[in-house]
Amino acid sequence: MNNTLSKKVKAIAANIRSRREEMNYTQEYLAAKLNISQNAYSKIELGYTKITVERLFQIAEILGAELTELIMADNAEAA
């Protein structure tokens, strides 16, 4: 069960990164918009940091994405 959850978290992180790259945004840009350090943002994309639903909504808004796009495991390259 824990392994499945870990894969889902990694899939969401991969979706966020993929969408950020599609928008040609840097990690620094997203970090600044979220008012966090680039290092803290990097940990989100790597799946090391547990993010809140509120933070997920903020990321989706910045990326101009629907929340469902980011949480769909099927969309992730690394799923």
From TrEMBL:
Keyword set includes DNA-binding: yes
Claim: DNA-binding is one of the keywords in the record: yes
Highest taxon above the source species: Bacteria
Keywords, sorted A to Z: DNA-binding
SUPFAM superfamilies according to UniProt: lambda repressor-like DNA-binding domains
HTH cro/C1-type domain span: 16-70
A family per Pfam: HTH_3
Protein name: Helix-turn-helix domain-containing protein
Lineage of the organism: Bacteria, Pseudomonadati, Bacteroidota, Sphingobacteriia, Sphingobacteriales
